[in-house]
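ESCALATION

Customer reports they have been waiting on this structure for their group meeting. Please prioritize. Original submission:
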Amino acid sequence: MPDFSTLMLFSAAAVVLTATPGPDMLLIASRSISQGRSAGFLTYTGIAAGTYCHAIAAALGLSQLFLTVPVAYEIVRWAGCAYLLYLAYKTLRTRSSTFAPSAGLKKLSAQRMFSEGLATNILNPKMALFVLALFPQFVDPDGSSMLIQMVLLASILNGIGFLVNGAIILLGTGIRRRLSAVNRFPKLPQYLLATVFAGLACRLALGTRN
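Update from on-call: job pushed to the front of the queue and completed.
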């Protein structure tokens, strides 16, 4: 098991990483603005679950597949692009009011928020390579099982991410309340969310493994 100083060093790195604006933070913020606090937290929960999946895959050696078999990386990358574009389309097609109260989200809607956060994280091969590159640096090769150590590091990253993104969610909820008082553009957050999905798809399509 990594010692205390190693875990503190990883925690410091996690603070910097989670506080740096990126695709996950952008998605969580846009969800919070367009659909409320519950949607923001559900999306983050899905993203956090995706981090565990990548950590387990790295521990089992599955993430190494993206380095040794380039076509596997490309398949996941384009699948992720297609899924994000589908989410953008679904967001634009919805006829429900963007500012409808979100406190009474149906169970199916909650599952959808979670699954979309999970899928966007899992279908991002860059996240798999990121975990594969960072986590092993803080693993004790002579300690307990690799799987346990990787899950522990993922838990620390997710815990810090919850605090950072929780603040983003609360900020986004405040912006949502302000926008709800403006009736001129009732679907503005809806268009914002669709733009975020489309932008993430373009970013994934145009990016490289480096």
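Sent to customer with the following note: Residues 97-108 have pLDDT under 50 and may be disordered.
Escalation resolved.
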